[in-house]
UniProtKB/TrEMBL annotation:
This is Flagellar hook-basal body complex protein FliE. Belongs to the FliE family. Keywords: Bacterial flagellum, Cell projection, Cilium, Flagellum. InterPro entries: FliE. It is found in: Bacterial flagellum basal body. It comes from Pseudogemmobacter lacusdianii. It comes from the Bacteria. The gene is fliE.
């Protein structure tokens, strides 16, 4: 079985575009919109670095940095989500 990195990268790119959600337009003036744009840019940068490392265009050190930054971004978003849900639950518990 002959697996070439260019074939793998091409197949990955096709699968990625087919499964990608439709982009949601966030207002860039709001804090949430800026946060969403920053998060999206960080993930896109990490993905492009990973794709370049697959095809031999990036060194392993850059790949490790990209993976670490994307992991940090995802953990940050999860923490913010958890805090928002917790605040919403506290509001629901308030007596009227």
């Amino acid at each position: 079985m002959d697996v070439r990195s260019s074939f793998a990268a091409q197949t990955y790119a096709q699968a990625r575009t087919a499964a990608a959600p439709k982009p949601v337009a966030a207002e860039s003036g709001t804090v949430v919109g800026q946060f969403a744009n920053t998060f999206t840019e960080a993930l896109a940068k990490a993905e492009s670095t990973a794709r370049a490392a697959m095809t031999g265009g990036a060194d392993p050190h850059a790949l490790v940095e990209a993976l670490a930054s994307s992991q940090l971004a995802v953990e940050t978003v999860a923490t913010v989500r958890d805090r928002v849900v917790e605040a919403y639950q506290e509001i629901l518990r308030m007596p009227i």
